[in-house]
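Inputs:
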Amino acid sequence: MPRQFAYYPGCVAEFSSKELNATTKALAPLLDIELLPMPQATCCGAGDVAQAKPNLYLTLNVRILSEAESMGVDILTICNVCTLNLRRANKMVKEDSRVLEAVNEELVKAGARPYQGTIEVTHLLWFLATEEGLSLLEARGPRGLNGLKVAPYYGCQLLRPSSVMGFEDPDRPQSLERLITALGGEVSDYEGKTRCCGFPIILAREEVALKESHVALAGARDAGAQVMVTPCPLCHLAMDAYQRKTEQLMGEEYAMPVLHLPQLIGLALGLPTKTMEFKRHLVPVDEVLSIVGA
Amino acid sequence: MPATTFRIFRYQPDSSETESYHQDFQLEHGEKTTLLDAILRIQNEQDGTVAVRYSCRSAICGSCACKANGKTVLACMMQVEHVKTDSGQEIVQVDPIGNFTPIKDLVVDMTPFWDKFKAVKPFLIPDGPAPEKERLVPKAAMEKIAKESKCILCAACYSECNSLAADPEFVGPAAFAWGYRFAADERDGQRKNRAKLYSGEHGVWDCTRCMFCNERCPKGVDPRDAIEKLGSIAFQEKVTSDKGARHAKAFLISLRTGGKLNEILIAPYTDPIGAPFNAPLALRMAQKGKLPKSPLTHRVKDRDQVKKLIKNVKETI
């Protein structure tokens, strides 16, 4: 019996970065996971709605949690920002029954199901970086990454604030490293792996954002990485789609292919490259594919 | 008794050695010795020229923030043994806080910090003449600003702020925590003016949400949350012309019209003037299928519920 999750891919993975959604869906059966759709689920607000209308942010996110609760399963995400927004809302209502009551009153008034506070929200990385997840990968007998030098890039919101996220030490995270090693890759360690990609402000403050992503891109390059991997599609857009702009601004060359986490796992497990839609990346990944023999 | 090697950042521009370097000191210390006590003992017993800023030794004055094995802490609040366990390292490297210019060893130039602090007008500016007696404030009203009132201006939040690292002019977390503390104080009469003051270039919409400030604050102020609440005040006061506020508005429009993000809308709505200059990137993204072919909104099931929530839910900050 596969482990069931209410699947919340988030807007970016559903639209701009469809390759992430497609790869996750293709990977799920190999990992004995069943991803159940959430047809009512809205955007989490990406931190923007929280900064404009915090009560609305909370209510909309609790509505998403409530849909999963009606399905009787926990939520699985593939985006740092969605994970933080959903977990934060969950924490706020679970810790204060008055807040939950007020939110439920609004939900009921709008014809939505009230939430009882029984759902957990986890990210695919967290699920796989546990013993259970790693043994699922091992059971698949990974073809492996052939010593591919991989720079783990966490970004911010899967680590901080640790009072909301809490899966691992936000200053010394090891989940990506554990996966890279288990899949036969070599970890290229560097300081910028927990710093911000700048994506949340890339449209409003492009130069500031690109200077931020530079720190991680330059760090990964200098550590000798052949590829960067990230658990977040927003980080992926900043690092992949905007990479050339960052190179132009900083006067540097990174030439750093960037993989979504499920793509790295897919490569190791032998998913067909066509399924993982690498052609949608702006920085070509051909060399990576040739190293792992895909 | 534990013994530890302290690798201390040295910078003595007035001496013959004008470049910075790290110097090792060995010290035997108690199990519960704080990092500040260890540094002061090194100063007293081994090298009187080691410079460190401190005062209260009790996590109240906010003077002794520094980096211990890369992580910003109050030196008086952190035990040496805790630094070692926390970082998994036997040597304790002590550096000045980040995003500031060192003056001497662990002492940095705080001038930009105080300038930004002053710029947010961190004091009450009531409307109208002063009352005859004190202004009474209900407890609930003060609870709204209780967290932010705990800020001790130690600058731990600035030390690892990623926006500040990329934009030294960013006003920054502590100053905005104070800004919120007064903007949301019901005795203050400058709510709208404050919203305008905090919403410009280098203002609240510059925050990249790296969450380092919430993670590092030794007093639980959660400055990022204060920045978020200042955004909400700006929306309530209809101060929404900044590109960052327009970005948030694009999310609200997306939610109202379909429920999910409308990627066609978001870039031109956020920055109608600048977006055309990004056409080359947009074209490359379109060629890779990263932009939608159809301008139709993405509609979730039961979106009438979402519309009702957007209409009904009131903001309370």
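Strands of chain B lie at 3-10, 21-28, 65-68, 71-74, 92-95, 102-104, 107-108. Flag for discussion at group meeting.
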